[in-house]
Amino acid sequence: MYENLTAFANRLRQEIGLRLPFLIPKKRDGTYAYLLTIVLMGVALLVRLAIAPVSAGLQYLTFFPSVALSAIFGGYKSGLLATAIGLVLATYIFTPPYYSISMEVLRLSFWSNMVFLLDGIIVSVSIEAMHRYRRQLKKEFDESRQSEAQVRKLNEELEKQIARRIQADQDLAEQEEFFRLIAENVEDFIAVLDLNGRRIYNSPSYSRLFGDVQSLKGTDSFAEIHPDDRDRVRQIFSNALQRGIGQRTEYRFVLPNGGISHMESSSGVIKNSQGEPQSVVVVSHDVTERKMAEQKIEKFAFYDTLTQLPNRRLLDDRLEQAIAACKRSGRYGAVLFLDLDNFKPLNDKYGHKIGDVFLAEVARRLTRCVREVDTVARFGGDEFVVVLNDLAGNEPECVKEARIVAEKIHVALSGPYLLTPELTGTRKMITHQNVGASIGVALFGKDASAENILKWADKAMYRAKEAGRNQCCFHDSGS
């Protein structure tokens, strides 16, 4: 009950202060207030002189309201000034002997003046206290209204933030559901990794590789990468974290069963509110079939489909590389141009299928006669070209080394051929002998072109045929 009465009293004070603001006006100290006081006292004097003669004792009755009004509109200083003016007027105008400035006047009016003075002081101070209370009350009320406005504004902003948060949560839930459906239904492999490359999340598609996806959480994502590619992929991962930008890369992935899959991955860095990397999203897909197709296309483009040897296009490239190597090292190389002898009778007798089996066997024998750094290519039909790299540093020694290889080829090709092609569902052994090769040899150093070298070797090969076949002739650089 006491709290209710206190609240009622506070509301009553606020209502009085708000509805009767003239009782507690704003601060009016200064020249204006003092002039107003003088005017009010002048009016009081005129009223006093108008309503009664000088000898009538009504002066305090007319001066006292002016004192109160001066205090109300000018503050306590104006009230005290009005009191002082009233004392002077009452003493020297309305106290006998009238209009006399003497000690007798002061003595006769002393007690009445003291009462008037005390009343003026009490009224001025009381009204000033009312002023200050009103100002304090108004200040508190203004602060209360400001606080209420601020609270209302904060509530409105909070409601907006709550609404935005609710909407953001709904949008986030929709996005999470959207991306969950994508992650669970795409064929690609989606993974979220921490800053150390350990797995935080793996899409269900990883079950095709590992079975249980949940067992992958917290494991090292680099463990299954082929050892030859692992350091490169780690470096790409580190660069993505440093730059904040992902990079596309290809690598080999070792499957649990030991198989190899070719993967193509692209990554994106997820950052926190401070712009610092928080995690990495990696999207990968299996490109093994594409790689196999590319390899097939490359074989079709650069390798002979029958013998699996480099074709003329790849031969030109290998020969250019060999010439460039000779220019750098100052050593010699050699090109051996081969045309098979005694091949046509086999092809005419057994047909092209047997001929193809025979050419494939010739290719295998030629490959065994040279080093890995050398090149054996099928030039066309029953013609082959051998490029010997990094031979001797002088021409005589180079001729000797090339002749040794040519002799090895003659020996390898001269042995019997046991061919077992499939003919109409049966396998038949065919023996073919007396096979040889006419070989033309052209040496090259730093001042030769691939086109000229092949022409020189081809001319030398025809001289070997003219010399009786199964021979080896060298190109004469002076001719």
Written overview of the protein:
The N and C termini lie far apart (133 Å). Helix 2 runs parallel beside helix 4 (76-92), helix 3 (59-74) runs parallel beside helix 6 and helix 4 (76-92) packs antiparallel against helix 6. The chain has three domains: 2-150, no CATH class; 186-288, Beta-Lactamase (2-Layer Sandwich); 303-474, Alpha-Beta Plaits, CATH 3.30.70. Strand 13, helix 14 (450-466) and strand 14 form a beta-alpha-beta unit. The chain contains 14 helices and 14 strands. The chain has 479 residues and is of the alpha+beta class. The chain has helices at residues 2-19, 31-51, 59-74, 76-92, 103-108, 110-185, 207-210, 227-243, 288-302, 312-329, 344-350, 352-368, 395-414, 450-466, and strands spanning 189-193, 199-202, 249-254, 260-271, 277-286, 333-341, 375-380, 383-388, 417-419, 422-423, 426-427, 430-432, 436-444, 472-474. It has a five-stranded antiparallel beta sheet, sandwiched between helices.
